[in-house]
Amino acid sequence: MAGTGPLSEDGLIRLLDHHGNRIPDATYDPYVAHLTMDDLRGYWRDMTLTRAFDLEATSLQRQGELGLWVPALGQEAAQIGSARATRDPDHIFPSYREHGVLWVKGVDLPQTMGMWRGMEHSSWDPRAHGVHTYTLVIGAHALHAVGYAQALDWDGHVASGNPDNDAAVVCYFGDGATSQGDVNESLVFAAVNNAPVVFFIQNNQFAISEPTTRQSKVPLAQRAQGVGIPGVRVDGNDVVAVHAVTQWALEHARSGAGPVLVEALTYRMGAHTTSDDPTRYRASADEQYWQERDPIARLETFLREAGELSQEFEDGVRAEAKDLGRRTREAVKGWQRGPVLSMFDHVYAEPHALVQEERAWYSRYESSFTDGGVK
Amino acid sequence: MTTTTTSTMTLGGAINAGLRAALERDPKVVLMGEDIGQLGGVFRVTDGLWKDFGDQRVIDTPLAESGIVGTAIGMAMRGYRPVLEIQFDGFIFPAFNQITTQLAKLHYRTQGRIEVPVVIRVPFAGGIGAVEHHSESIEALFAHTAGLRLVSPATPSDAYDLIQQAIASPDPVLFLEPKARYWDKGEVDTQRVATQLAAADGASVATAEMSKARIAAPGTDVTLLAYGPSVRVALQSAQIAAEDGVSVEVIDLRSISPFDMDTVLESVSRTGRAVVVHEAPTAFGTGAELAARISEKAFYHLHAPVLRVGGFHMPYPGAKFEHDYLPTVDRILDAVDRVMAQ
What we know:
The complex is a heterodimer.
Chain A: E1 12-13, H1 37-62, H2 76-83, E2 91-93, H3 99-104, H4 113-117, H5 126-129, H6 140-154, E3 169-174, H7 181-193, E4 197-203, E5 206-207, E6 210-211, H8 223-227, E7 231-235, H9 239-254, E8 260-265, H10 284-291, H11 295-305, H12 311-334, H13 353-367
Parallel strand pairs in A: 1-7, 2-3, 3-4, 4-8, 7-8
Antiparallel strand pairs in A: 5-6
Helix pairs in contact in A: 1-2, 1-11, 1-12, 2-9, 6-7
Chain B: E1 6-10, H1 11-25, E2 29-33, H2 49-53, E3 58-60, H3 65-77, E4 81-85, H4 96-103, H5 106-109, E5 119-124, H6 139-143, E6 149-151, H7 156-168, E7 173-178, E8 185-189, H8 192-198, H9 202-210, E9 214-217, E10 222-226, H10 230-243, E11 248-252, E12 255-257, H11 261-271, E13 274-281, H12 286-298, E14 307-311, H13 322-325, H14 329-340
Parallel strand pairs in B: 2-3, 2-4, 4-5, 5-7, 6-7, 10-11, 10-13, 13-14
Antiparallel strand pairs in B: 1-8, 6-12, 9-11
């Protein structure tokens, strides 16, 4: 982990080391000064439940119940720490692995499985939860985030004089996405428009099989310099530091000071997706190194050593995790496909002659079978 | 307003007037593009709008087409109605991904929860002696993508109405401006679309109205199907055919997605002959789609195969060749002769 490349620890903000020790930081401590032990226990619960859901989904895919699953294993601190810094008027544009972010924003995780089971596309209302649908076309949503942020500004949600009214956008993407044209255009558009966006890179070190060294010669946060915005590197497995940095970045954006690029250095402990096989491209020694830096274990150690994780609380969360897994399994297995003609819905907002014609034809075709056809 | 509402405009001027009316009608309408502000666009279609509406409503963007479309999508999510200018047809391709995977599909992908009423204006097609990448007919690439609507005006009147209807529609619309016709003049009724859009269901009515074809010239022997820049050539062909005693009906499709097949099939059922004219290469094109659908729906009315007159399967050639590449009156009349011989 030495050197100056994209995986170096150069400039990494860290408030909790992997032994669970609190490291003082004059710049970022003020941004977590408000956190209570209850908050930290809450983050531990968030991460534990996210992981339980994630592992259940991986099992369901292995059992043939899901077409695909994208594990967030190992990235819980990056997701929970950042999402917990957002609040209601803020809006989030996730990539497709941000299950922890969805959890924080109140999306019922079992109900997100329809997409992965092939029952429907996105399953939640982006407006109701302040979080956009997943985007599988890498980096495409970064531009939407910038446009949304510009509109927040136009609507008087930036530096309005009323901090509760001020808002910003958080846009999540990975290390691979930083090579995309759309992500680079997003940085340009956000910078010249001073748009209130926090670009949050989860550098999990792999774009499927390609290490971050195939995307960049420098730490990804340095990309910010080229467009003239602040870039910050944070230990993505340290939920406290992630929270502090995101809190700072959001306040910066909401105050009208413009966009920020945050790079959270983390590690994808699992596969890219359930179709992937990491044993083909990475060493078990590396996996072991990062196992020792597990984001949940780190906070757990801190809380335990501080005497702040009671058996009762832990048991309660474990029971919740079990229940979430059960609900996820039941939701997946019990999911009924909608009526076949519903696949013609929502192609357009207003009637379109061709869609109407094809729908009518398929309806006639289906009903021509003596058994009434597929339902 | 009950005063005179008809005036003479060029096609480009009618789009400008339509944009101005939309900006005045709806504070959520914003124009974005390269050089559309102080310069007024390279074809001056947005001339004067920056001066009157300011740089919050008429926005010069960085030079990145994907960025223009992508940020517009985000703005639309917050209720804005961005109207984008892609400077030339041949420069839309950096935005192809945003248009086809995001703009076209978001309403479907979010189960109707998000509408993206973005209009993309594109000066398209050839005939102006331009250098490469400045004369392309891109419609088939986008008409193939569900979720998008495509319209193309052939007259100042339609330009004025269609641009405002496209902006009012809750669906994303590609608005294809026949750049060789920007200077064509015609009468424009400025009241009709204003009345339409003032109604409670104005957006629905506008969307339905902009999806309708128009009979540009009635006839009984052959149906010529055209849109955008090809309508004028089709009308000229019809006049010359009439001198030879052949009655040609010209249909200005106006909308490419969807096609107004009711109007097309009604006409072809009467004439029994159809020729499609467009500048785009004929292979895998909109004419192929029309020919297929006419043969599926009106086969027993046909006296002759449906013919296509259009560009060839090649990149748009150098300007000195475009007269041979584009559908001319002679090539259209040749096709008319061939269907009449059957």
